[in-house]
Amino acid sequence: MAIRDILILPDKRLRLVSEPVKTVDKPLRTLIDDMYETMYAAPGIGLAAIQIGVPQRVVTMDLAKKDDPPEPRLFINPEIVWSSDDASVYEEGCLSIPEYYEEVERPLTVKVRYLDIDLKPQEIEATDLLATCLQHEIDHLNGVLFIDHISKLKRDRVMKKFKKAAKLSGGDKPNSDGLSDDKEPSHHIG
Ligand code: NI
Q: Which residues 6+ apart lie within 8 Å of 185 measured at CB?
């Protein structure tokens, strides 16, 4: 297992549309292990494979609270098959857009079809944080970021900030070492 580098805005690979997984082989298992390790280390509650530069439709997640036992979740080729008309607003963040948080309105409840590690079809009805997180991560698989759901004015402002930071650091990610473990992990959606 290895912690991999997380792509940071404005990395163009974050805009790629990821490819469906067709077989579970050793490289895929290694990818999944690395995604969990990278997500827990960040720390984040969700991660899409493209965030570590792999354009495959794989999402890892763990919404367990800090002192509770881990609850790792894996979604292969996840797809939203139903969304509620009721909406909820959640202050989202993203490991690829460190230390930026903004309220995003999304459907409160979604039904998601996905494959498990044996490529067996599964379906989950998710609400609240799980629904928000699933929608955020499935967006990643389609090259969509949470800042696409906020006003153009705010989006332009954050894009400008990250473009400038990338230029200053010669393309490296902005320093995110300031993230404290005491912060609510729910902020770092993934
Ligand atoms: Ni994200």
A: 43, 44, 45, 65, 66
